[in-house]
Design goal:
47% of the residues lie in helices and 14% in strands. Helix 1 packs across helix 15. The chain is globular, with a radius of gyration of 19 Å. The two termini are 14 Å apart. The structure holds zinc ion (ZN).
């Protein structure tokens, strides 16, 4: 621990970089949407923001995208459009005049459910997953499915409509920003991007499904917002969750900024077929030391410390 502190102190001298942070739900443990898998405690979120203010100039994603070279800039983003951020994060950011971007899934805005979140919130309910298994007709043994339903549905599912219908029927309500929330935030000049319709692994989609998940999602969100969306955050965001075909399609429908969350590439831009992919760092309940480590880790690697 002492060593980490020292390393971070030394490396902080070299800190002159641009980073983009991703949050999901910001809530206290007793709130409906809270899960240790993706939530950030409210007081810790406040500490993170203070830390960022002290060490970076916090700018909008657009400003970061336009800026050339290193500049010690940081941008804040939220994925999935959790309702909790309206109450627990946005007031603090607005008070400090800090810009941020929210990446929305149109199905969550319109239907108040996302299968991945529902899975996490139902994670201790074996009957939920048994029933789900029977309904979706997935081609793996039940025992294997129950070991990791998220992984199974990300990688092995073919009949996605059945999954969506099941999840909708059993959804916990009031987890996501709805149309009215989104319009109110838009009126307050909040920036928005898209995150696909249902949050599937876009690398596993057929061309027909890509059209629904990416193009129709974009159109639905643009209809609500009344302006064109140019930013797209890849659902799940890791290397195995996108491929050449899906990224080409994102560019084709008009996305100009495409974001990934590969953990080892926090400063490296990735290119697929000449299309730039921009890195982000996903945060939940990290300490300030851990955040420093995340920001500096490519440097750590480079100098083999
Ligand atoms: Zn997401």
């Amino acid at each position: 621990m002492k060593k980490t502190r020292l390393i971070n102190k030394v490396l902080s001298l070299f800190r002159n970089r641009n980073v983009i942070m991703v949050y999901h739900d910001v809530s206290s443990a007793d709130e409906l949407s809270h899960s240790k898998h993706y939530s950030t405690e409210i007081t810790l979120f406040q500490k993170h923001i203070e830390f960022f203010q002290k060490n970076f100039s916090i700018v909008s994603l657009d400003e970061l995208a336009k800026s050339k070279g290193w500049g010690n800039r940081l941008a804040i983003t939220f994925d999935d459009g959790f309702k909790s951020i309206k109450k627990n994060a946005i007031p603090l950011l607005r008070e400090k005049n800090i810009p941020f971007t929210i990446f929305l899934n149109s199905s969550a805005v319109e239907g108040d459910s996302l299968w991945i979140t529902e899975f996490i919130l139902h994670k201790n309910e074996l009957n939920y997953f048994r029933e789900l298994y029977k309904e979706i007709g997935i081609n793996v043994p039940e025992e294997q499915f129950l070991q990791d339903p998220v992984y199974m549905c990300v990688n092995n599912l073919h009949d996605r409509d059945k999954l969506i219908a099941f999840v909708k029927r059993h959804s916990r309500e009031n987890c996501f920003l709805d149309r009215e929330d989104v319009i109110k935030l838009r009126d307050k000049k909040v920036d928005f991007g898209a995150h696909s319709m249902h949050h599937f692994n876009i690398a596993s989609l057929t061309n027909h499904e890509l059209k629904i998940q990416i193009k129709e999602d974009k159109q639905k969100l643009e209809k609500i917002l009344g302006f064109e969306i140019s930013k797209f955050a890849i659902p799940f965001g890791k290397m195995e969750h996108y491929n050449k075909n899906s990224i080409q399609y994102c560019a084709e429908v008009g996305y100009e900024q495409i974001y990934h969350t590969n953990p080892n590439d926090v400063h490296k831009k990735d290119f697929i077929d000449g299309i730039e992919l921009i890195p982000r760092i996903v945060l939940t309940n990290e300490s300030l030391d851990e955040i420093s480590f995340y920001i500096n880790r490519t440097l750590l690697k480079k100098y083999k410390i």
